[in-house]
TrEMBL record:
UniProt KW keywords: Decarboxylase, Flavoprotein, FMN, Ligase, Lyase, Magnesium, Metal-binding, Multifunctional enzyme
Regions that span the bilayer: none
GO molecular function per UniProt: FMN binding; metal ion binding; phosphopantothenate--cysteine ligase activity; phosphopantothenoylcysteine decarboxylase activity
Functional summary from the UniProt entry: Catalyzes two steps in the biosynthesis of coenzyme A. In the first step cysteine is conjugated to 4'-phosphopantothenate to form 4-phosphopantothenoylcysteine, in the latter compound is decarboxylated to form 4'-phosphopantotheine. Catalyzes two sequential steps in the biosynthesis of coenzyme A. In the first step cysteine is conjugated to 4'-phosphopantothenate to form 4-phosphopantothenoylcysteine. In the second step the latter compound is decarboxylated to form 4'-phosphopantotheine.
Annotated pathway: Cofactor biosynthesis; coenzyme A biosynthesis; CoA from (R)-pantothenate: step 3/5; Cofactor biosynthesis; coenzyme A biosynthesis; CoA from (R)-pantothenate: step 2/5
SUPFAM superfamilies in the record: CoaB-like, Homo-oligomeric flavin-containing Cys decarboxylases, HFCD
Catalytic activity: N-[(R)-4-phosphopantothenoyl]-L-cysteine + H(+) = (R)-4'-phosphopantetheine + CO2; (R)-4'-phosphopantothenate + L-cysteine + CTP = N-[(R)-4-phosphopantothenoyl]-L-cysteine + CMP + diphosphate + H(+)
Protein name: Coenzyme A biosynthesis bifunctional protein CoaBC
Chain positions recorded as CTP binding sites: D287, K297, P314, D315, I316, L317, F333, K351, K355
Annotated cofactor note: Binds 1 FMN per subunit.
Chain positions covered by the region annotation Phosphopantothenoylcysteine decarboxylase: 1-197
Pfam families per the UniProt record, alphabetical: DFP (PF04127), Flavoprotein (PF02441)
GO CC terms: phosphopantothenoylcysteine decarboxylase complex
Amino acid sequence: MTETPDAPARPRVILGVGGGIAAYKACEVLRRLTESGHDVRVVPTAGALEFVGAATFEALSGQPVRTGVFTDVPEVPHVKLGQGADLVVVAPATANLLAKAAHGLADDLLTNTLLTARCPVLLVPAMHTEMWEHPATRDNVALLRSRGVVVAEPASGRLTGKDTGKGRLPDPAEIVELSRLLLERADALPRDLEGVRVAVSAGGTREPLDPVRYLGNRSSGRQGFALARVAAQRGARVTLVAAHTADLGTPAGVDLVRVGTAEQLREAMHAAAAEADVVVMAAAVADFRPVAPAEHKIKKSDRDPDPVALTRNPDILAELVAARRPGQVVVGFAAETGDAEAGVLEHGRAKLKRKGCDWLVVNAVGDGRAFEVEDNAGWLLSAGGSETPIPHGSKAHLASALWDAVVRTSNF
């Protein structure tokens, strides 16, 4: 494609599509990638076209679709596609396709592209549980990962027919988030958290005033979900305790626990932290709750409403720090605005000292920052005194920076 002199080149993504029933979900992955500014070329297998026609992929991408190496031979597509890509994503990656990629077989355009690509490669498996757990598939996945290929953890849920289990293709939004992360940082998803147990909180608590109304906040939960998602894709065993969030789905490879109030989140996080090596408090916990929520909806009247008596909620982060086991890492988050007394970073330093956690992520909030948006930035403060700025990027990018620091300074 041609770029204007002043326009930055769009990231070039090859979207490979394997021949599984989940191939239809590749259409949503394609739509999300193109609408977010990526230049996408779809390279399906012949089996994939049994599920989704080439015309669909061509209409959504604006690019021709080919499966074999003997079309457009003068352009040498079996070499040039991989050479020119910034990222190769294969979704779904079937057991057959994983086996071919692991052993260097190249009998169609997609497998040739995988051999010539020198950019990050993300393979997103989808298959029945028995196929995913078969020793041959596990060996192929391990071999690919040892070479630096990112093989995503599949989701659990409904499979073909009435079967359920691990092997489901992750949600298209999750695939796109992982793709964007690898375009931001090619080394963002190493398998360096294998076997590490992680507990993460996310979202905003809601404290009932009556059966209809509540005290809450603007947290969407996106940052906490990104922390859980990236940890799981780096090999961790993750429990995600989520209060109110946007409609984010369950990250692949993550055990999700839903809660509502601060007290419920407190109970769930203490239970998860008891077995965790790393505890991350990313949830936005309401500082106060009504002393006595009304049993019935509070009605409007001509008189002024009665004052609502509030009591302070427990400081869950401080409790988790106090209960910390030897070697356990506790991470907190601070959403700050700055005021007449101090700036965002100064308030963050004070909170780190007050809470006593090992790491604190400080975010500036307000004016469209941090809350209810897809991107984030901030500072990573350590109990040892280091301060690392985290540049503006996706929330998955911030998550990867945090996990880098935790791995670097821990003895897992």
